[in-house]
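Weekly sync, protein design subgroup
Attendees: M.S., D.O., the rotation student, P.L. (late)

Item 1: inverse folding check
M.S. brought a backbone from last month's batch and wanted to see whether the design step gives back something sensible before we order anything. D.O. pointed out we never logged the input encoding, so this time it goes straight into the notes. Structure tokens as presented (349 positions):
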């Protein structure tokens, strides 16, 4: 495979710069229709057994891209060409914000991990909405499912956080297929406090009041941290029933630091704050997923996120109770064929 060679070269450069360099090159390639068709032909797997209907939406396959990769809905065409069944854009906030100081994205290749402290850098909900409106006009035949991951601005006080989520929900309502409330990123000060039951009830309650008043309401999901206790997870389960949530995303990045490699451990200490993703979060993420599945008893669908690199990893999450899976760090380490490779293992003849 050629990707490991390319990855070794790219890993010599700044991760954030490489992200935009790679995706902009892919964008240029996909702007030529026959090149896009070649990419799509080589990286997409279509099979009836991959198709899924979850919270009323039809997915061509169960492999999605997690939030944080295409924050501003810049690369939907390109990511669709790589075979993704769904793409979660964002996290989007009401006002544009630059995020935390750079450097803020770090690789730990010995553990196939990433630490990020991006801080919800995005163009703001108005710019993202306009981009999605344009996308839907130009790509009306697209079967890709687009989720909107929404959050609060850093300057917004927690007691007013619900207002930010309402703004994003209203702005994006007509241009995304489902919503994810993100209160679990460790990179916005105080954000994780919103995972407490009272704060969540306010946010989700306000959103569902708007949602259920609509003629065609949108699925509303909650993304949770892997660092919650079973008691906190029980609160999430109770809240999911009370507020009629359509699903949960398990999980976001972790603030824990568990590494197999001493080199990663030493590097992590130098890096400092940030959310850890990839292999080190895989087991904990699956444990949380399974616990939620057992408590929910198939009543509310789950999207698994955390340490998915291969078809075997995806199967483990699906067997633990997930309806869909999302990759992010795996995409960086495995390359553009990750969806194809996972889907080939998931096909049932």
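Designed sequence read out in the meeting:
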């Amino acid at each position: 495979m050629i990707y490991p060679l390319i990855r070794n070269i790219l890993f010599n450069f700044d991760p954030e710069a490489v992200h935009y360099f790679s995706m902009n090159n892919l964008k240029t390639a996909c702007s030529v229709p026959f090149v896009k068709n070649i990419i799509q032909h080589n990286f997409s797997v279509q099979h009836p057994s991959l198709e899924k209907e979850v919270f009323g939406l039809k997915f061509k396959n169960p492999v999605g891209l997690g939030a944080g990769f295409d924050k501003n809905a810049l690369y939907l065409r390109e990511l669709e060409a790589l075979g993704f069944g769904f793409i979660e854009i964002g996290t989007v906030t009401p006002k544009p914000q630059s995020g935390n100081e750079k450097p803020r994205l770090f690789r730990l290749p010995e553990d196939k991990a990433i630490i990020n402290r991006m801080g919800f850098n995005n163009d703001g909900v108005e710019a993202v909405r306009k981009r999605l409106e344009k996308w839907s006009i130009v790509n009306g035949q697209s079967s890709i499912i687009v989720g909107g991951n929404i959050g609060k601005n850093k300057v917004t006080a927690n007691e007013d956080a619900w207002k930010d989520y309402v703004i994003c929900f209203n702005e994006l309502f007509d241009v995304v297929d489902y919503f994810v409330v993100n209160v679990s990123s460790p990179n916005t000060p105080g954000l994780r406090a919103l995972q407490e039951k009272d704060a969540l009830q306010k946010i989700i309650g306000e959103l569902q009041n708007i949602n259920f008043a609509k003629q065609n309401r949108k699925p509303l999901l909650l993304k949770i941290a892997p660092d919650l206790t079973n008691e906190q997870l029980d609160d999430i389960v109770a809240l999911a029933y009370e507020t009629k949530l359509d699903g949960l995303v398990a999980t976001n990045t972790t603030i824990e630091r568990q590494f197999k490699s001493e080199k990663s451990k030493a590097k992590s200490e130098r890096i400092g704050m940030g959310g850890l993703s990839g292999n080190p979060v895989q087991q904990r993420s699956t444990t949380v997923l399974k616990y939620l599945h057992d408590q929910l008893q198939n009543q509310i669908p789950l999207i698994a996120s955390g340490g998915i690199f291969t078809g075997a990893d995806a199967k483990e999450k699906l067997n633990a109770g997930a309806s869909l899976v999302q990759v992010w760090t795996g995409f960086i380490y495995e390359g553009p064929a990750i969806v194809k490779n996972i889907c080939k293992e998931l096909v049932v003849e």
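Discussion: The two ends are 26 Å apart (CA to CA). The mean pLDDT is 97.
Action: P.L. to compare against the previous round before Friday.
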